[in-house]
Design goal:
single chain, 155 residues, alpha/beta, Hypothetical Protein Ychn, Chain: A, 5 helices
């Protein structure tokens, strides 16, 4: 499934849930019928070490292979890990890791870039790859996603 298909389906789900939340119903909404993934996971990526990055990307790929469309995956990047999604990384990042990240993004994996880290590097949203979403604070992103039911994976 293409990333834009996943985003469109998630947008539709958000609209349906917003409507459903304002209407009292006797039956709970079955999210699977609406296409909502049963599983949600957020990975913390905060190092630029090649083995570390490859381990996380491999794990994310395995989760996609195992659960397909039944999982929503976010990778929150901050500190030295932000270089994985930089247009011009300031640390050594292998072309293979960059290609794997882009491939995962095409399959609907979300990459959240820490705005605080960007500021500390004197970067803006223009300095990260187009598939990345900038969040204000990476740690806050991790906390909020956990509050929304995402399982937290730290390497």
């Amino acid at each position: 499934m293409k990333a834009h298909d996943c985003r469109a389906r998630r947008w539709l789900l958000a609209v349906l849930l917003a409507i459903g939340c304002s209407v009292a119903t006797a039956e709970p909404i079955d999210l699977q019928l609406l296409g909502a993934p049963t599983h949600k996971v957020v990975y913390q990526l905060n190092k630029a070490d090649a083995d570390y990055i490859n381990g996380i990307l491999f794990s994310v790929g395995e989760m996609l292979r195992r659960y397909g469309d039944d999982i929503q995956i976010v990778i929150t990047l901050f500190g030295p890990g932000i270089h994985l999604i930089a247009k011009q990384p300031g640390r050594p990042i292998s072309p293979e890791a960059r290609a794997r990240a882009a491939s995962l993004a095409a399959y609907g994996v979300e990459f959240h870039a820490c705005g605080n880290t960007l500021k500390s590097l004197h970067w803006t949203a223009k300095d990260v790859l187009d598939y990345a979403t900038v969040v204000d604070v990476g740690a806050d992103d991790l906390m909020r996603l956990q509050e929304q039911g995402y399982a937290y994976i730290s390497w």
